[in-house]
């Protein structure tokens, strides 16, 4: 089984979970708005929506890159000639790899620290290391997708690229 097949399956599963989390965020925010309108507050809705937002973001980040659904500003890129576009793309890949590396390294350290120190969320007492592990896994999947994109680019330049596989 090729890397791209299992990567597509994992990012697809994370995407579905992220979509479900988005639905929960909508429900939580709607519940907060209604409760404020009815003059009673529900404690913890802000914390819950923030945690769900972080989980949703990092569960979907690799899928968004795979499907190329991320926000891209092409105004300046379109002004460049093909050689400078390639240089820009290479620079972007280097920056993404560095950012992913730092986030994975620090995320791993933070997850271990949170586990050892038994850090929990303020209101619910939920173990924070679980959230940090999801962020870590999301960044690892994102890094894998970056390398997949690099492979696509190199194969495309060599004329070996046939489809959207790594």
Topology of helices and strands:
Layout (H helix, E strand, L loop, with lengths): L2 H35 L7 H22 L15 H36 L10 H31 L8
Please tell me about this protein's structure.
The chain is an all-alpha fold and 166 residues long. It has one domain. 75% of the residues lie in helices and 0% in strands. The protein has four helices and no strands. The protein has helices at 3-37, 45-66, 82-117, 128-158. Helix 1 packs antiparallel against helix 2. The longest helix has 36 residues, at 82-117. The protein is globular. 21% of the residues are buried.
In percent, how much strand structure appears in the residues? under 5%
| Percentage of residues in helical conformation | over 70%
User: What is the alpha-carbon Rg in Å?
Assistant: 20 Å
User: What is the overall pLDDT average?
Assistant: 89
Number of distinct helices? 4
Number of domains: 1
Helix/strand order, N-terminal first: HHHH
Low-confidence stretches: none
General form? globular
SS-derived structural category: mainly alpha
- The overall strand count is 0
Largest sheet, described in full? none
N-to-C CA distance? 11 Å
